[in-house]
């Protein structure tokens, strides 16, 4: 049994012997699309026209979501350890977020085995 594959242009829905899978690259990423010869020519013209703009533009990086690390600045202890100690000792510390350098210093002073993480 023979099968016939009919490719359809992804842009205009046309069928034809010139419709083929076409790969193209944009900003280091490769894409593929089924296009006729005419639409493939249009794509290449658009990419050629876009190239000078990309070459002269600066990439904008997405804003970070902050540090994901939950480790303390002290080897062998976590931020939770530091916060628990601070609360027991009556030292003011936030429930979340950055722990002040003063709280870390007091923790290190109270724990001789605590060493600042370099």
In spatial order, strands of the major sheet run 1-2
Strand fraction equals 15-25%
Provide the helix percentage.
25-40%
Instruction: State the domain count.
Output: 2
Number of strands: 4
Shape: elongated
* Architecture (CATH level 2) name of the largest domain: 2-Layer Sandwich
Order of helices and strands: EEHEHHE
Question: Would you give an account of this structure?
Answer:
The structure is a single chain. By secondary structure, the chain is of the alpha+beta class. It has two domains: 56 residues, 2-Layer Sandwich (Wheat Germ Agglutinin (Isolectin 2), domain 1); 43 residues, Dihydrolipoamide Transferase, CATH 4.10.320. The chain contains three helices and four strands, in the order ββαβααβ. The strands form two sheets. It has a two-stranded antiparallel sheet. The longest helix has 20 residues. The radius of gyration is 30 Å and the shape is elongated. The termini are far apart. The model has no long low-confidence stretch (mean pLDDT 86). It comes from Actinomadura algeriensis. InterPro entries: E3-bd_dom_sf, Lsr2-like_dimerization, Lsr2_dim_dom, Lsr2_DNA-bd. This is Lsr2 family protein. Keywords: DNA-binding. Pfam families: Lsr2 (PF11774), Lsr2_DNA-bd (PF23359).
